[in-house]
Amino acid sequence: MSVPQDTAPAQAAPPSKAPPAAAPSEPHGRRWNGVGWGFLVKLVIMAIVNAFGLLGIFAAAQAQSWIIFGAAVLLLAAADIVYFTKRALPLKYLLPGLGFLLVFQVFIFGYTAYIAFTNYGAGHVGSQEQAVQAALSQGERRVEGSPTFPLAVVEQGGTLGFAIVEEGEIKAGSAESPLAVVGTTTAAGAPAEVPGWTIVPRNDIISDQALQKEVIALRVPVSDDPNAGSIRTNDGSSGSIYQSTLQWDAESQTITDTSSGTVYRATASGNFASDDGVTLPTGWTVHVGFDNFVRLFTDPAMISPLATVTLWTFAWAILSVVVPFAMGLVFAIIFNDERIKGRKILRTLFILPYAFPAFMSALLFRGMFNAEFGVINEFFFGGTNIDWLGDPWLARFAVLFVNVWLTYPYYFLVCTGAIQALPSDALEAASIDGAGRFRQLRSIILPLVLVATAPLLISSFAFSFNNFTIIYMFNNGGPAIPGAPYALGSTDILISAIWDISGVSGGKADYGLASALSILVFIVVGLISALAFRQTKKLEEYQ
Question: Tens digits of per-residue pLDDT, 212-230?
């Protein structure tokens, strides 16, 4: 007899208490005294960004450029919010591009538009206070019986100045800041130490001729009153007070020449002018409204030269696109034929001008077209003295030849790709229908190629319209147009004319007029490009 087994479930053993799992240790090098390295890097970047931002803000405030000051504050605040918070994730990628767009495009265009409505240029580059100081300094003479001060030439932040001792007080100043008390002394003569300034050793002044000229030309105003005169020196060790024969009256806004009695009154055009129409050389910047734009179309001295430049600009831009495009298309069709032997080598040779720097090519061709020793006259015209650079029409032909030489390889590459993408069945069907090569080119190849290349042609037109490099490097816009008020030449286009009018290359500078012409060029190119892009939509029906 079997003994019955106990069917009751066995008592489960109590679970053993396993030791708590250790927290995952921080990877080596990721934390330092409880602070994450990523956080530290973020703080460093934040400090650097804010340091540069505050530097720009303080510089704008010091220069009293309040528009730039406001823009700098907004950009810094935006950078802090975007990059140092968890918000606005898309802006972390967009903000750099938007910032550069604001600084290098929007600001430049806005500032150009602002200058276009002012008389900013030669003789009008500062404020009225600066114009008064310049006028008075030009008429300064040494005051009879004025004492001679032992002085020291001092320097502060790269700015030279003078320091003197007067009644136990050390006074120092520069051309921009009048003499002011900076300390006291009991010693007589030139000060040995000037608080806040560094004394320039006399030996340095004697050994450096450029420094000598700068010291002799330096004038330090005696006080805030421009009529009080200034201190000048002839030897860098002693100075005298000079006063101008011109006297400024701030209430009546007049400058009086005490030697002749002539009165110069401030005008709305930013000049000091006498009753007989004589003006002082230095004026100041004022808003002139649309005067610069009106002058471009009404000034008799400007109309004829500017009309010549404008017509040549359009001819240049059109021919610089049509001629090389036609050449590139023809060469692309020829070298797309499989019967041509060595097509790869020939294609490489044809694109070599495009690979060579444009400004170097312009300089080389300038020498080749020289009338006296250029290879063009020597080898192609038997040594005939043809004045390529001195005759207006020959110079235009020469510079256009150079531009075509440089640009046709680009169109050759573009057209080669467009032709190779054409549907072969369309050409075969046209050939079966009896269409000749010219009919295929006119009705099939050219329309389909234009569909692909029309945007490139429009952008090339805009580029050629403002192709300053070739014009400047080849002949500097010459030969000169007789009677032009500025250094305008027969091969100048509008962009190089703006360069000449601005006076950057020499001559009288008229930034206001140059900016007004820049605005007009921008409008013309924009309108032509917009109209051309609208017309390209009609080509889509060929697809």
Answer: 989 998 999 988 888 888 8
